[in-house]
Amino acid sequence: MRQKYASGLGEDQSTSIRISGKTIEEVGFDKIQQQMSNLAELQIVVIDELCVHGQDVDDRDKDTTRFAAVCPKTKELDLSRNLFEDVADLLHLCGGLEKLESLKMDGNRFSENTSLPMNMLRAAPFSTLKSLSLEDTMLEWDQVMPFSPRQDPGANILQIESICFYFPSLTSLSLAGNALETIPANALLPTSITTLNLERNRFATLRDVSLAKTLPALRHLSLKHNRVRATASQHDDEQDVFPVTLEELDLSDNKISSWAIVDALPRWFPGLKSLRLPHNEIYHSEDAFTTTVARLGQLDTLNYSTVRLR
Asked: Are the C-beta atoms of residues 219 and 247 closer than 8 Å to each other?
């Protein structure tokens, strides 16, 4: 923290910048640096790509109190693309931040033998956290944890699901870039989630993300940059219906080559009002926009453009 936000405080800043023979005067940078170096007042903290790694088990409790003492007002914390291998290190590091609302763990590669602290789960230190990002971590649903936060201590629990147990008040969850091909229909996530980002994965059908059916408050689902080409496989029953609360769907950059999947969207998403379809095979014609509007009369917006009746 001090290396990034307060390392230059008090140093000589007299070095001038010259462009095309002219000296550029820096105005106000000293005030900005002074403001950012006041770590106790920072609300947005970004410590990404700094090779931060976990501590010994005996030092974890010290890290919890130490970080909270330095930055007690932190609301948004970005720890992306560091060298954390154990999720417990991140949880202990953030556990003392009583005002934390957003946490990013993107790009960290956690070990399959990662551990999770049961005592922290019972204390519920992350009740204020609303947004969690686990992009590009390569976490899988079928990596079984050595313990379970469920009531049955002998049951196994899937890795992504077990991490989310620590954040019961989540409204936004991003799992982009994890090479996911399917999500178990019986998987458990916080029912308060309204935004689910599943971009840059390997889903081939809408059935592969049927987990979203179990999220009664879900409003926005993004499947951008996947391999979606159908609602379900040939051997599946197409009776799945997503919650009526789901109004926004992003299917851009997929493999949709038939209008049949577009015609089926109202059955799968009865509350759909906003849709994105660019960069699919069916969307290469000039009349693709008007054809989509004609087939989906309930849309209010298509590709961020307002649909107006004429």
From this structure: yes
Instruction: Report the alpha-carbon distance of residue 12 to residue 10 in Å, rounded.
Output: 7
Q: Is residue 22 part of a domain?
A: no
Q: Name the residue among 163, 201, 162 with its Cα closest to residue 179.
A: 201
Tokens of 67: 């970080």
Please indicate, yes or no, whether residues 126 and 1 belong to a single structural domain of this protein. yes
User: What per-residue string of b and e applies to 203-221 under the rule 16 or more CB within 10 Å gives b?
Assistant: bbbbbbbbbbeebeebbbb
Domain range for 239 is 172-310
pLDDT tens, 148-193? 454 444 344 557 888 888 898 999 999 999 999 998 877 788 999 9
pTM for the full model? 0.84
Same domain, 50 and 131: yes
Q: Per residue in 42-85, pLDDT tens?
A: 899 999 998 888 765 555 555 556 788 888 899 999 999 999 98
23 lies in a domain? no
CA distance linking residue 74 with residue 162, whole number of Å: 24
Statement to judge: residues 118 and 182 lie in one domain? no
CA 192 to each of CA 131, 154, 215: distance values in angstroms, whole numbers, following the listed order = 11, 27, 7
In Å, how far are 13, 18, 124, 253 from 232, measured between CA atoms?
Answer: 62, 62, 38, 18
Asked whether residue 114 falls in the same domain as residue 230, the answer is no
